[in-house]
Amino acid sequence: MTSIHSISFVQEEVDIIDFLVDNNAMIKDFSRSQFMWFFVEENFHIVLFLAEGEKSCFERHIIEHFSENMNDMIALWNNFDKRIQACQEIRIMKLAKNKVHDLIAMSETFRALFGRRDFEEE
Fold first, then answer.
1. pLDDT tens digit string along 76-89?
2. Residue 117: which domain range?
3. How many domains does the chain have?
4. DSSP strand E in the chain: where?
5. pTM of the prediction?
6. How many Å apart are CA 63 and CA 97, to the nearest integer?
7. Distance (Å, rounded) from C-alpha 41 to C-alpha 61?
8. Do the beta carbons of residue 103 and residue 110 sit within 8 Å?
9. Whose CA is closest to 17, among 44, 57, 54?
10. What confidence tens digit (pLDDT) does each residue in 25-82 have?
11. In sequence order, which residues have a C-beta less than 8 Å from that of residue 70 and are 6 or more positions away?
């Protein structure tokens, strides 16, 4: 697992499959790329199964306390955008990018839900 700020990146297939099974979300069709997302407490998890490359693989991105870490959410959004520009799994990357965008747009709502202060209050 690789960590930058509050972002963690997991490529270990066994760990990702265990996570999906634990969350009753194991994919059944390995012939196409897919993405899933979850909240575990205040952490945002996005799991990608990429089937279009030479070898299919899983990726899991985790943003801890995502409602408070908008810079990391924006960095994740930019990561997906760069991969779209590089023509990597465009359909899945667009879905993932749009989900991150939605959560960024709703960050104030999530901060209120989790009892966190608004950025203006800090």
1. 999 999 999 999 99
2. 2-121
3. 1
4. 2-4, 7-10, 34-40, 43-50, 57-63
5. 0.86
6. 14
7. 15
8. yes
9. 57
10. 999 999 999 999 999 998 999 999 999 988 999 999 999 988 888 999 999 999 999 9
11. 104, 107, 119
